[in-house]
Design brief:
Layout: E1 10-12, H1 26-39, E2 43-46, H2 58-72, E3 77-81, H3 87-100, E4 104-107, H4 117-129, E5 135-140, H5 142-145, H6 151-157, E6 163-168, H7 174-181, E7 185-188, H8 194-199, E8 204-207, H9 214-226, H10 229-246, H11 253-263, H12 283-301
């Protein structure tokens, strides 16, 4: 039986790292990867929504993954999201990720044109075939992709022995239970419900705000594993309040998070790429408040 222990834990979704000219900054990528390694996370999810993948070229996505692997490959479990909105580019990224030695690749369904299940399955299987020695994870995020994973589609995909599970970013926790019942490994996606997702059977979590406050999500996982559920609910509620404050800014969520990490003494990884909105001047007060909320929560729950 396959050992999935390398996927058990907290996986920050890795952020796009840019220099002042807006180009991918390899040194910043390596610095952020090392920063997160030192925080004690299990692995990284590279090239997904938080990595601004739909606004980056194939070459930029390769450059980012290469720098992540050069810094923390073999030290963290790396899952590379490789989907593009065409099969050829997706396969190129999948083959590249396998050559670099990632533990798994992942892919959303094709967006814009809503393909039938047969078309989605072919797209995913074609990508998987380009990385024949690498685990494959379905990325279910219907609120953005416009297409939702179904039980029949998952059953079809699980005929592919490389398909091990689902990164589930749909909001219903019930979905995690359904995918688990089909034999899939499931990662909780929505950060606001990590504790609930773990209770429903998720093996761990992949989240877009994890890198801003990894200590708190690691504590939620610890509370779940040790049965300290009352404390776990308190920490989860505090994470939610912090997320709501992040979302109150005018600028894009990832622009907020990148500034918060800088305020924490972490690496400066630049801003976000247009058409995502950079921070407005009024947002700076929000980032300071978020920074203080995280610092207080870590001191209270992780000391």
């Amino acid at each position: 039986m396959k050992d999935f222990s390398k996927y058990q834990g907290i996986f920050p979704a890795f952020y796009a790292c840019y220099d002042k000219a807006g180009k991918v900054d390899g040194q910043a990528v390596r610095t952020l990867a090392k920063y997160l390694l030192d925080k004690g996370v299990k692995g990284l999810y590279v090239g997904g929504s938080s990595g601004e993948c739909i606004y980056q070229s194939v070459a930029e996505r390769k450059e980012t993954l290469e720098n992540v692997m050069s810094e923390v490959g073999g030290k963290l479990t790396i899952i590379a999201h490789v989907a593009c909105n065409n099969t050829a580019d997706s396969c190129e990224l999948a083959a590249h990720a396998e050559r670099l030695g990632v533990e798994a690749i992942a892919a959303i369904p094709p967006i814009y044109f809503h393909l039938p299940p047969k078309g989605i399955a072919k797209y995913w299987n074609d990508i998987s075939a380009a990385a024949p020695n690498t685990d494959f994870i379905i990325y279910n995020i219907p609120q953005l992709a416009g297409v939702a994973l179904t039980v029949p589609l998952l059953q079809e995909m699980l005929k592919n022995p490389r398909v091990i599970g689902v990164k589930n970013s749909s909001m219903p926790v019930q979905d995690i239970q359904m995918w688990r019942d089909e034999g899939a490994v499931v990662f909780n996606g929505p950060d606001e419900q990590l504790l609930s997702g773990l209770a429903a059977g998720a093996i761990g979590g992949i989240g877009g705000t994890y890198a801003a406050m990894p200590e708190l999500y690691l504590e939620i996982l610890r509370c779940f594993q040790t049965g300290a559920l009352e404390k776990g609910r308190e920490v989860q509620n505090e994470c939610c309040r912090i997320i709501y404050k992040m979302c109150s800014a005018q600028g894009n969520l990832y622009a907020v998070i990148k500034e918060v990490i800088r305020l924490q003494g972490g690496p400066d990884v630049g801003s976000v790429r247009a058409p995502l909105l950079e921070l407005a001047e009024a947002d700076l007060a929000v980032t300071v408040e978020v920074h203080e909320m995280i610092k207080a929560a870590v001191a209270k729950y992780c000391g």
